[in-house]
Amino acid sequence: MGAGTLYGSLKRMLDSGLVKESDKRVDPKMDDERRIYYQITAKGKKALEAELERYKHIVSVAKERKLFPNTYAI
Prior knowledge:
Helix content: 40-55%
Strand content: 5-15%
Distance between the termini: 27 Å
Order of helices and strands: HEEH
CATH superfamily: Winged helix-like DNA-binding domain superfamily/Winged helix DNA-binding domain
Number of helices: 2
Shape: elongated
Structural class: mainly alpha
Largest sheet: 2 strands, antiparallel
CATH architecture: Orthogonal Bundle
Number of strands: 2
CATH class: Mainly Alpha
Oligomer: single chain
């Protein structure tokens, strides 16, 4: 993922309330004043859970239809 894709995605997630800037910092020796930390919000967790359920459904349909190649043991 390129920087433009990453920062574009972060901006969209911030704008929609899925993540927020965090006050938590890592080891001060590793920190940089330009570095911004993010954390998932309650809304973001709900969206993630919904997306994971959607993926589970897609995988179950693919299993039922035997769409997985023989190289995958699922």
